[in-house]
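Q: Structure tokens for this one, please.
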Amino acid sequence: MKGWLVATALLTAAPVWAQENALRPSETWEDLRESVIGLTEEPPVDPAMLDLDAPIRANDAAIVPIRISQPSDAPALTDLMLVIDANPAPVAAEYTFGEALMPLDFEVRVRVDAYTDLRAIGTLADGGNVMAGRFVKASGGCSAPAGKDMAAVRDSMGEMRWKTAQEDGRTLGTLMIRHPMFSGLQRDQVTLMNIPAHFIDRLEVKQGDEVLFTMEAGISVSEDPVFRFAYEPNGQPISVHAEDTEGNIWDQTFDAAG
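A: Here is the predicted structure, written as tokens:
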């Protein structure tokens, strides 16, 4: 239980991050934008439509908390791509969002491998794009040692927790999933051999028949993923479906009240 509390605190107790770590000009991004992301033009950066908060300097490069949010009057997003420019696999995750998450207020933890821009690229209902991001000082996150031994990983993999809270008139849901999210760049601290990549690559969270969000992830989402998000509840149970790269599947349903 202590581990769950620590993981949640990393998101909920994060400091108010300064705004001076804005996106920086980047040759890496220029290469990625069209060849990997598929954008022929630079998306506009407009905090009136989308914002991303991240620490200027990460306390732990393997667990960097980020918060992606919109003002209350911002246009709805249909999906979003999370990109960490200097990571070995720059596309950290791709999300789709249901109407119940609008306006967006979504938190997740990621690995950051080098000083880099970290950006969210959202898609609007009309097909247009908007971008937000921060420059984060962190290094070594993708190869940082796993937080627990292999026996503990096997015993707890796939366990989930769900809870809700009220904040500023909105309902906040927190989903926590036990999984090592091995990046393929880490070493077993006993054998000193590289641990093969093994991570949750597909996630779907619903309330009743209504999709709240889906995620397709790569190696950059942190160990024991935690997702915290504001949503409009409909009173139906919360169901979670997760799949990982080794074919494991986990399904769990929670009472809406957490």
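A few notes: The chain has three helices and 14 strands. The CA atoms of residues 179 and 218 lie 13 Å apart.
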